[in-house]
């Protein structure tokens, strides 16, 4: 297959290099287009007010991998790859392996998920892959699992609007539990900002929230599916189906009653 790989941790991150090497060893044609430095938590931001530069970085990856380091955001990287750098449309877009989890509603601010979502928006099977611990640096098992999942999904059926979000627990493969479909959890944080003073006495704020460990809350989906947080907490890999469509799925009767110029909105 032709595989495009990106991330938000940057071109020097061990996660993306491990994933690219694993894909290349399976005989796939691998192209990496990723940020030239860490750009975590940039969400789906695009660069509009400055130029985007891209430089070849093949020497940072295993032989046979074509790589570009891009000055833009993760979403920029995928978009630039698809519309400018790649000669042929890829069969698969992978984003990761992220150094840290992308669980629950954190997917909205995740650069990793955004890079994969750009592929989904273009009708390309895409998957975000994350190691669910910032300190865990053993990516090989996660890379093999991600490729197994992607290859099986492509061989069976992969709906055009489906984005797969894979989170891998920080443990050895021999102690890892079974993979399951999961629902997105509801992620909450305590004390999200730390107020401080600079040397001139002016206030500034540092985003420093601690996540609340919640194994129960989860959004839409089959009730017998665990939340992604609960799944990873049990040392099991979590696979969550996501789609770009954010349309309200609750009862229409629950929408606010609104009017304009005296006429009720229907």
Beta-strand residue percentage: 15-25%
Number of helix segments?
5
**What is the distance, rounded to the nearest whole angstrom, between the alpha carbons of the first and last residues?**
48 Å
Helix content: 10-25%
Succession of helices and strands: EHEEEHEHEHEEEEEEHEEE
Descriptive notes:
The protein has helices spanning 14-25, 74-85, 111-121, 140-155, 228-233; strands at residues 2-6, 29-35, 54-56, 66-70, 92-99, 126-131, 163-168, 180-181, 189-190, 193-197, 203-207, 210-211, 238-242, 259-260, 263-264. Helices cover 21% and strands 24% of the residues. The strands form 4 sheets. It has a 9-stranded mixed β-sheet, with helices on both faces. The N and C termini lie far apart (48 Å). The model has no long low-confidence stretch (mean pLDDT 95). Helix 1 (14-25) packs across helix 4 and helix 2 (74-85) runs parallel beside helix 3 (111-121). The longest helix is centred in the middle third of the chain and has 16 residues, at 140-155. With 266 residues, it is an alpha/beta fold. It has 5 helices and 15 strands. The relative contact order is 0.14. A hairpin with a 5-residue loop joins strand 10 and strand 11.
Structure keywords:
single chain, 266 residues, alpha/beta, 9-stranded mixed sheet, 15 strands, 21% helix
Q: Secondary-structure map with pairings?
A:
Blueprint: E1 2-6, H1 14-25, E2 29-35, E3 54-56, E4 66-70, H2 74-85, E5 92-99, H3 111-121, E6 126-131, H4 140-155, E7 163-168, E8 180-181, E9 189-190, E10 193-197, E11 203-207, E12 210-211, H5 228-233, E13 238-242, E14 259-260, E15 263-264
Parallel strand pairs: 1-2, 1-5, 2-4, 5-6, 6-7, 8-13
Antiparallel strand pairs: 3-4, 7-13, 9-12, 10-11, 14-15
Helix pairs in contact: 1-4, 2-3
């Amino acid at each position: 297959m032709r595989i495009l790989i990106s991330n938000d941790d940057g071109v020097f991150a061990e996660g993306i290099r491990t994933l690219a090497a694993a894909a290349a060893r399976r005989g796939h044609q691998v192209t990496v287009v990723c940020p030239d430095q860490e750009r975590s938590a940039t969400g789906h931001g695009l660069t509009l007010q400055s130029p985007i530069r891209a430089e070849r970085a093949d020497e940072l990856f295993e032989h046979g991998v074509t790589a570009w380091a891009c000055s833009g955001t993760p979403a920029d990287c995928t978009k630039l790859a698809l519309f400018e750098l790649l000669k042929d449309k890829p069969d698969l877009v992978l984003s990761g392996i992220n150094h840290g989890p992308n669980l629950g509603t954190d997917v909205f601010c995740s650069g990793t998920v955004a890079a994969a979502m750009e592929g989904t928006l273009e009708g390309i099977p895409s998957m975000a892959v994350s190691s669910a611990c910032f300190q865990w640096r053993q990516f090989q098992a996660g890379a093999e699992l991600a490729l197994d999942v992607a290859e099986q999904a492509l061989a069976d059926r992969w709906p055009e609007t489906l984005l797969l979000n894979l989170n891998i627990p920080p443990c050895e493969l021999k102690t890892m539990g079974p993979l399951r479909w999961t629902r997105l959890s509801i992620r909450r944080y305590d004390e999200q900002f730390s107020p401080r003073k600079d040397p001139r006495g002016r206030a500034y704020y540092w985003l420093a929230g601690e996540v609340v460990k919640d194994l129960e809350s989860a959004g839409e989906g089959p009730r017998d599916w665990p939340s992604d947080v609960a799944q990873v907490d049990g040392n099991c890999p979590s696979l969550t189906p996501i789609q770009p469509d954010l349309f309200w799925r609750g009862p229409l009767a629950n929408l606010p009653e609104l009017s304009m110029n005296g006429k009720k909105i229907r």
